Amino acid sequence: MKYRHAFHAGNFADVHKHVALLALLEALARKPRGYLYVDTHAGRGLYDLDSSAARESREAHSGVNALLHARSEGRLVASQGLARYLDAVTAVRAETGLRHGCPGSPLLAARVLRAVDRAVLIESDTLEFVELGRALRGWRRISLENSDGFARLPALLPPPERRALVLIDPPFEETRLDFQRIGHALTAALEKLAHCVIAVWYPIKIEADMARWHRSLAERLGAEQSRETLISELYRYPPDSRAGLNGSGLLIVNPPYLLEGTLREDVAALAAALEPGLGAATPEPGPGSWSVRQLGASKSTA
């Protein structure tokens, strides 16, 4: 399963990731001192859900479009974070004139950066990088780089601001290698800036593979016992099914204060909205189930 950003734009995983990203950006903005935002795999920044790739996948139909439709009919019970994300999507559509536009992480971040904050957005694919430049044209304090995000990250840390939020969201075209690269990137980044906030998105396909990866990360990050690492997971299909993308995962190193509670509210609301009728999260991974926990803890949502 290859994760192509345009193909999956606006799907449940995209919403999960972006709701969490906005919560992270809001948390960092609570302090007056500026921060650096780094997006290692930025993509094109803005997607058209009427594109051939989006029409082929139809994944946004059961993701952002379903949520917006439910809200327009007054059926959506949204958390503050989910409402903030949907407001951003609606605003971007109005600002760009793209009727079915869907902002990626670069554009979502650009809209909330303050005058004291900076961003470095990195994209290795040249065609995607050109589109990223178009989507971010006119935004200040944002640098764009057409390079390898994994390779560039250590050189960007520590920033002059001494605060940073890094989003690592590779396409997983080389799945096993990308998981290995993520582990190395975490180590390298934390060596340069120990309190760096790092959010990693990952696809959940085979549950056993994820459990092994989590164990390896716990060992890698365990050298500093005081460091917190959150896991947030949202499932649309049972683990190990043949659906391809069974669930969406986020790993957040050095989460800001109170983020865990915020994510619980947001992911619970998102799960309920995407799977109406299933009620509260189920104890086992499957449609409508979710988990927000510390790395190494059980999947219970209680």
What are the key terms here?
two-stranded antiparallel sheet; single chain; 11 helices; 302 residues; Rossmann fold; eight-stranded mixed sheet; alpha/beta
* Mean pLDDT over all positions: 90
Count helical runs.
Answer: 11
CATH topology assignment: Rossmann fold
Alpha carbon gap, first and last residue: 32 Å
Secondary-structure element pattern, one letter each = HHEEHHHEHEHEHEHEHEEHE
Work out the strand percent: 15-25%
Class from secondary-structure proportions: alpha/beta
Which strand order spans the largest sheet, edge to edge or round the barrel?
A: 5-4-1-6-7-9-8-10
Poorly predicted spans? 278-283
Query: Radius of gyration over alpha carbons?
Result: 18 Å
For the sheet with most strands, the description reads: 8 strands, mixed
CATH class label = Alpha Beta
Helix residue percentage: 40-55%
CATH architecture: 3-Layer(aba) Sandwich
CATH homologous superfamily title: Vaccinia Virus protein VP39
Mass-distribution shape = globular
Task: Compile the SSE list and pairings.
Elements: H1 5-8, H2 12-28, E1 36-39, E2 46-48, H3 52-57, H4 64-72, H5 80-96, E3 101-103, H6 105-110, E4 118-122, H7 126-135, E5 142-145, H8 149-156, E6 164-168, H9 175-192, E7 197-204, H10 207-221, E8 229-235, E9 247-253, H11 259-274, E10 290-294
Parallel strand pairs: 1-4, 1-6, 4-5, 6-7
Antiparallel strand pairs: 2-3, 7-9, 8-9, 8-10
